[in-house]
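Check out one such.
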Amino acid sequence: MPLSPISTPNAPAAVGPYSQGVVANGFLFTAGQVAIDPATGTLSTADVATQTEIVLRNLQGIITAAGATWNDVVKTTVFLKDLSTFSTVNEVYARTLGAARPARSTVQVAALPLGALVEIEAIVALPK
């Protein structure tokens, strides 16, 4: 099974030995995205709502580069530094994804890369 890495300037470059996303068997698996500005490579120090907007914009860049949309996303995982921010993240998430309603898990974690407040990854069924 050949794997096809996805690379786009519309999401941050990988900060380690991984790809922004990988296509395998008709699915796109994204790397977790934090609120890094793709142009500068710096993490936003803004509040969780703004960080979530940036994270979702970065994810959308990867999804679009693979030829898909939010409607093709089948599963996301949301990692939060503080679960008390769930409702704020949820509001931004719902507004951004529109009518798309992929399956989702949300977990609180002890820490995220670079001190981020939120990280999101996605699994996408690519259109044929």
User: Anything to note?
Assistant: The helical segments are 48-65, 86-97. Strands lie at 4-6, 21-24, 27-30, 73-80, 103-108, 118-125. The CA atoms of residues 83 and 108 lie 5 Å apart. The two ends are 17 Å apart (CA to CA).
